[in-house]
Write a structure and sequence with these properties.
Blueprint lengths: L3 H4 L17 H9 L5 H6 L11 H10 L3 H11 L5 H34 L8 E3 L1 H9 L10 E4 L5 H9 L4 E2 L5 H10 L2 E6 L2 E8 L13 H6 L2 E5 L2 E5 L2 H14 L5 H13 L4 H11 L2 H13 L7 H7 L3 H15 L9 H9 L4 H13 L3 H6 L10 H15 L2
Length: 406
């Protein structure tokens, strides 16, 4: 097994070396299995591997943590050889369990969409994204992508109607907040989770892609206007355009600092499987100030997953050397399973590095300082007439975190 590390070493163009991966064979194997591109040939190239000597319990644990267990299971079952019988059984059970869950969510997706369409208070226009739509359109198999909720994009003006529509089929907000506080959250936040008798946090209504302070102002109205359709579970389902879907996936991965392989795999598979107008994508990215976020996402797809990228994507990546440096940093964090505190100063500094324009960095910093969160509202109770003072509460709490972290 001494040769394993060299066999999974990236190509010469890659800056993710076996040292970066710290010799973690299980993680490196996941990088091979996390994309469908050339999977058969890539697994076959490991004919000299003694897969039976891998730490399979660690492999399964890391695969689940990174959200790629269904992908890994399917590819190993189809193209692997010499697997221990108990591992074959575990992989098959993992894939089948995820498929059953995905089919339930797909049926629930259709039920929610019907409720939105037929709601007596007026139709609620909503676009589902990620979840079953992503699994079907990008991976071509509902069982290959794990997910734990259904995400719907709506315009803010439709939130109350959408909430009432969900109540009609047994969904209630996961967290109770007063009406006045909810109005603040509609201005400054971006999502609300809903529970049902079937489980917690099963549906999310999102009226923005990111919280206000991220300073990425892509109106949901524009996404709805450009949306198309796809067949999911035998039903015609609204979906984002391929160009918008790629932007959204990159933004979602960046918000979480690419901490899981599945978010990189989603981007790689979207590039592989979809017909995309890259001139449109890059134009929108530059307009939003997120070209570097795309560059880091593409760098990770190429250098961690060894995905073949379209020529326009390669050319775009070459225009920002900073994206490659950041990509190398995030790849190392990804390999060692780094966790982030999303309320820490470290996280905020990393997000700042991802913005290429000084004006966006200033807007992000200002909004971060000035935009109240639900935590700020919960920390101090104020009457609605004094809600503007929550900005001072926000500043005080942020300063407290800065000094406590020193």
């Amino acid at each position: 097994m001494e040769q394993t590390a060299s066999m999974i070493e990236p190509s010469p163009r890659s800056k993710v070396t076996s040292a970066t991966l710290r010799g973690e064979r299980e993680f490196a194997l996941l990088c091979v299995l996390a994309t469908a591109e050339l999977t058969r040939d890539r697994i076959a190239s490991f004919a000299n591997w003694e897969l039976s000597t891998l730490d399979w319990s660690e492999f399964l644990r890391v695969a689940e943590r990174h959200g790629v267990l269904p992908l890994a299971a399917r590819h190993l079952l189809e193209h692997g050889s010499g697997l221990p019988p108990e591992i074959v059984s575990a992989l098959r059970s993992a894939y089948e369990a995820n498929l059953r869950r995905s089919l339930w969510f797909t049926a629930e997706l259709a039920r929610v969409l019907r409720q939105f369409q037929d709601f007596e208070g007026g139709e609620v226009r909503a676009i589902p994204y990620k979840g079953p739509v992503l699994a079907q359109s990008v991976y071509g198999d509902l069982g290959l992508r794990s997910f734990s909720d259904l995400d719907f994009l709506i315009v803010p003006a439709n939130f109350e109607r959408a909430k009432q529509a969900l109540a009609g089929i047994g969904y209630c907000p996961a967290l109770y907040i007063a009406a006045a506080v909810e109005r603040i959250w509609l201005r400054n936040g971006y999502e609300r989770s809903f529970d049902s008798a079937a489980g917690k946090h099963l549906v999310e209504l999102q009226w923005a892609l990111l919280p206000h302070f991220y300073a990425v102002d892509l109106p949901v109205e524009e996404l709805l206007e450009r949306s198309g359709g796809a067949v999911v579970g035998g039903q015609e389902t609204p979906c984002l355009s391929p160009e918008d879907s790629l932007l959204v996936l990159c933004l979602h991965a960046a918000k979480h600092l690419w901490a899981r392989l599945i978010w990189v795999a989603d981007i790689a598979e979207t590039l592989r499987s979809q017909t995309i107008d890259y001139a449109v994508v890059f134009s929108r990215a530059r307009g939003l100030g997120i070209a570097r976020i795309l560059g880091v996402s593409f760098w990770l797809a190429r250098n961690v997953l060894q995905a073949e990228l379209p020529k326009p994507v390669e050319e775009m990546m070459a225009t920002d050397r900073r994206a490659a440096l950041l990509g190398s940093e995030f790849a190392a964090r990804l390999a060692r399973g780094a966790n982030y505190d999303f309320e820490s100063t470290e996280y905020f500094r990393l997000i700042l590095k991802l913005r290429e324009r000084p004006t966006d960095r200033w807007r992000y910093s200002w909004r971060l300082l000035w935009t109240p969160s639900l935590g700020d509202v919960a920390a101090v109770r104020l009457p609605e007439a004094l809600f503007p003072l929550y900005r001072m509460v926000r500043i005080g709490r942020l300063l407290g975190k800065v000094f406590l972290n020193r």
